[in-house]
Amino acid sequence: MNISTPLSAENGLTYLRKGHGFPLVFVHGFLGGAALWEQQLVSFSDTFDVIVPELSGYGGNTDQLSLDTIEGYADQILTFLDRLGIGRFHLVGHSMGGMIAQQMAAMAPVRIDRLVCYGTGPQGVMPNRFETIDTSKDRVRNDGAAATAHRIAATWFTEGKAAQGFPICAMMGENVSVDTALAGLTAMEGWDGRAALDQITQPTLILWGDRDRSYGWSQPEALWRGIKGSSLGVLPGCGHNAHMEKPEIFNAMIKEFLPENV
């Protein structure tokens, strides 16, 4: 994978940006960063203005104070887009980033033209997760962030540590501090978006890898049934990071869903 260097800007966050057209924003998840969207940056930049911000505490922002609420991260991304002069946009959120995307839709519904909730659900405390959030917190404290990143990133792929995308995921996670990792887990633990699902009115696509160990079927199903008129796409033979395991299928599904002209 060809990894681009995130660009620093006066808005206070590092990010990747490429292309021209209607803005398309990708939000990464827990222990992630902009580099994990590299294949999407390349694929979508021929028709969209692709913007991939990094949350505070992650990627190039590891020196920044991390946030411990999903609402805080949603506000941070909306402010970031304000400073770029972005009004309306398409939004793709993955994992914890999918929770952030749902919160953004609740906070600024008129700004989001189309929404993609990928590998995520409406509950921060996830049923059937590979381990409880409390267990993850204990292991972060006891093992450190780097060891935790390697262990958790392996669960994101059907081939575990042998997956092609594992090294970059592990590397991004290694740079996250213990405080940031704990804050991210706290943010998920304290968030529940189920009551707001019927208020999401923009066209929405739910994407899920059928071997996702972080989000069992009950979570994408709750989004699909709770968001009126939403569409569902299931990626066969994929884990949590389906966009890295089978990018051609993942990208094609989103391209089919998104209009080039708004």
TrEMBL record:
Superkingdom in the source lineage: Bacteria
Signal sequence segment: none
Domain AB hydrolase-1: 23-247
GO MF annotation, one: hydrolase activity
Coiled coil ranges: none
One Pfam short name: Abhydrolase_1
InterPro entries documented for this protein: AB_hydrolase_1, AB_hydrolase_fold, AB_hydrolase_sf
Keywords: Hydrolase
Protein name: Alpha/beta hydrolase
Organism, scientific name: Parasulfitobacter algicola
